[in-house]
């Protein structure tokens, strides 16, 4: 039986994945952690469903998107694959119903009104959806993410809502700063949340450019796009 030769795109993605895996392994060794503690999320926004299939064929089971229209269509097209879908961007409240239909883990919950909307739609869809509280790591309100002082009350409220499961926290390092101190702050918030919510043990932090610093500061989930799939093309609606 003969097998079809790998496509140029398949070879490109396989090479990107191999390099990302090398970086993760090296960072885990430097931090004294096991590779098994880390979940790699392939961020496939602006890339076609065919790339998702190539990644799945290489063993990647976690896929991240941040635009509902694109994510919903891609999840439907790849419904035959055993994938975990992560919604990693800001969720608009009016998109809660659509996102709740396919997302397994939502990384950007930063306000109670959104959590309540997701809860209603999860119950309506008969699903339980994991949620991460997005923490503002630059301390500026209005730029996405709950301020650290507001995270624990939001965690308690979210954990009580039907259809949702509080799974941990998420953060994005501020631009133009050393990411390590920001990720250390996120780790501190994560530890505080876990004191009252023992199963909320996910720390989503780190992207293509700062994954070693994220791993060194306790990240469990990395959101990697460019290093896996190449530079993004402009998004065309």
TrEMBL record:
<dbReference type="InterPro" id="IPR029066">
    <property type="entry name" value="PLP-binding_barrel"/>
</dbReference>
<feature type="modified residue" description="N6-(pyridoxal phosphate)lysine">
    <location>
        <position position="45"/>
    </location>
</feature>
<protein>
    <recommendedName>
        <fullName>Pyridoxal phosphate homeostasis protein</fullName>
    </recommendedName>
</protein>
<dbReference type="InterPro" id="IPR001608">
    <property type="entry name" value="Ala_racemase_N"/>
</dbReference>
<dbReference type="GO" id="GO:0030170">
    <property type="term" value="F:pyridoxal phosphate binding"/>
</dbReference>
<dbReference type="InterPro" id="IPR011078">
    <property type="entry name" value="PyrdxlP_homeostasis"/>
</dbReference>
<keyword id="KW-0663">Pyridoxal phosphate</keyword>
<comment type="similarity">
    <text>Belongs to the pyridoxal phosphate-binding protein YggS/PROSC family.</text>
</comment>
<dbReference type="Pfam" id="PF01168">
    <property type="entry name" value="Ala_racemase_N"/>
</dbReference>
<comment type="function">
    <text>Pyridoxal 5'-phosphate (PLP)-binding protein, which is involved in PLP homeostasis.</text>
</comment>
<feature type="domain" description="Alanine racemase N-terminal">
    <location>
        <begin position="37"/>
        <end position="231"/>
    </location>
</feature>
